User: Fold this.
Amino acid sequence: MKPGDELPPLSVPVTRTLIVAGAIASRDYQDVHHDPEAARAKGAPDIFMNIVTTNGLVGRYVTDHFGSGAVLRKMAIRLGAPNYPGDVMVLTGTITSVCADGDGEDGNEADGSPALVDVAIVGTNRLGRHVSGTVTVSLAGKAS
Amino acid sequence: MSDLYERLKAYEGHPAAVSARGKDPVNTAMIRHWCEAVGDTHPAHAGEDAVAPPAMLQAWTLAGLGGGQAGRSAALGELFALLDAAGFTAVVATDCEQEYFRPLRPGDVVTYDSVIESVSPCKATKLGAGHFITTRTEVRTAGVSALAATHRFRILRYAPAARAAGRRPKPVVGRDNAGFWAGVARRELLAQRCDDCRELRFPWLPGCGGCGSPRWTEARVSGAGTVYSYVVVHHPPAPGFEPPYVVALVELAEGVRMLGNVTGVEPGGVHIGMRVRVEFQRPDGEQELPFFRPVGPADDGRVRA
Ligand SMILES: [Zn+2]
Assistant:
């Protein structure tokens, strides 16, 4: 594993069910995430995904890739174009840094301590870029 | 500085929440509902000794349908009241930065303190004019002084801009092109091939433009092509379309040309000769429509604020 390595893309169909289930599971009852009429009254063409669901999908994309030893340490995301029903969000990721936990040195893989990996992620939909950001994940004893 | 902005900015540094408490202790039911919603199958979040997925942090702190969060400050209520009164009634989240120091486990009672970090001047955005509000929250669990997580959150409070009402128009399906739309419904792109002179044609027509023969057979095309020409539509507004958007004439690998919207890229990122591939989407959540998505690095797009 090294900076520049890419994660396989993940296509996420943006269904109404996903938008509503994600909003309710995160206890976000803002009407724009479940009520199309209310969303239109506020200038959106339809309901759209809440940021917590996007956060969850991005986190899951990264931990799915690195497996059961992976633990999320930091996530910083910025939203752009909304995820509306019927769209498909394609998540892509690129490893930007790999270092042993705590010492901040690149490529220290010898001692088996958890590695910290930074992944730059982008999620695009038909309107453009829905989300961009950086995820830091630790990998227990898997620095190679 | 406007009068209003001066009054809004005065709330910077004021608390948004003091010793607030999550409505429910961390619990396996909410963890499971969340994992099912976002499709998270990480084994750490399943079973008796599950820990909460870090990314669901806000699920433990949001007030939910009941509202009335204990510990929410008067300052935040006043700030939102000022924004409401000035017409900035709608809200959308734009940024979320979180750091997780230790896992939240079932039984943990989440507590948090939050401060209004900044209020932006009024900005023009695609949604309408508005102010960005940034808060920073420290999350702990009852009885433990060490931080569990930190959370910086930026929202836009905006005055909704008017837009063209209504739904995207449906394709006109008739006897001559029904086969094409039946193919699209199956997520297949179909042209016609003349049974006599073998010429491939698109759009669909009852007769061959080359030899005049009315006999033809459906021919599936790959959907790969290049942008032959395109326009960026800014105006006039049309129901179901969010300007600016791209209408491209795509030359397919098989030689015929097809019109479609380009998806997954900012209009400024589209260029003649750009390689694209068909992608089927249901923009109203109903009928499949063909779009074209650039093939290659996802970085062709830029953030749309
Ligand atoms: Zn012919």
Observations:
- Confidence is low (pLDDT under 50) at residues 104-109 of chain A.
- Chain A is about 20% helix and 40% strand.
- Residues 54 and 111 of chain A are 35 Å apart (CA to CA).
- Chain A touches chain B through 62 residues (CB under 8 Å).
